[in-house]
Amino acid sequence: MRGENLRETLMGGQSFSWRDEGDCFSAVLNGKVYRIRDIEDARHDPFLYGYFDLGYDYELARQEIAARDGILRRAVESTGMIRLLKQDHWIALISFILSQNNNIKRITGLYSRLSERYGHEVEEGYWSFPTAEELSSATEEELRSLGVGFRAPFIIDAVAKKDILGEVEGLPFDEAMEALQSIKGVGPKVASCILIFSYQRREGFPMDVWMKKVMAEYYPGKDASYFHPYEALSQQYLFSWIRSLT
DNA sequence: CACCAGGCCGTGC
DNA sequence: GCACGGCATGGT
Fold first, then answer.
1. Among A189, A212, A213, A222, which one carries the catalytic annotation?
2. Is the pLDDT of residue A1 over 80?
3. A15-56 per-position pLDDT tens digit
4. Is the pTM for the entire model greater than 0.85?
5. Residue A189 a catalytic site member
6. Is residue A193 part of a domain?
7. Rg (CA), chain A
8. Res A2 pLDDT > 90
9. A102: which nucleotide lies closest, measuring CA to C1'?
10. Are residues A143 and A236 in the same domain?
């Protein structure tokens, strides 16, 4: 079994906030720049402790997922230990709106451009992601000029409906999914990513183009409930694994 | 030139 | 309810 895979957790499609600096990963979060080389760097910082969900036993979850079947065992052993991040709701909402019909590299680029255009510089060369208030000054034309394309009106609608994010907190999973999907550009896949990667709803099971291939080939006739109670984490391992094959 | 990327919307049936 | 085309952009 391989150990902690910080790269996969930070750069594998959960978050688009992190940069690979070579000797560390960096991100502007919580109004400041964080730089970490190792998961142990996060353990003594209260914000990062929550962000990396360090109170949850990911090693146990990993072992139980691996024990479910041979495919999951292969997936788990191929990628090392992955965590589910607890990100800011607003950042997750816009990030996964940007993600639709897009690839991770380009999503990261759009995230950076939005930050430089509408966020603020907290350290030379490091911009915060814009708040809903900061993004409210954006026009559809401006957003398109940054390259977001057809997602521009979705971002505008998200700004207008940002209060939904607070209401989602107390809702059961299905109702939370529905509430999020009342925002334009948010469908089942985007909504489940937001719930997993910022609300710690581990029953989410995002079905993107990669996971549809995995399910059709290795789990025909099955659905998310097969992976209970590790739907989200199993999905993350399978997603990482299938992408690493091609 | 085609086809794809952590999909969703609008339309038609 | 489900199937299908369209959609901005950049990479292969």
1. A189
2. no
3. 999 999 999 999 999 999 999 999 999 999 999 999 999 999
4. yes
5. yes
6. yes
7. 18
8. no
9. B5
10. no
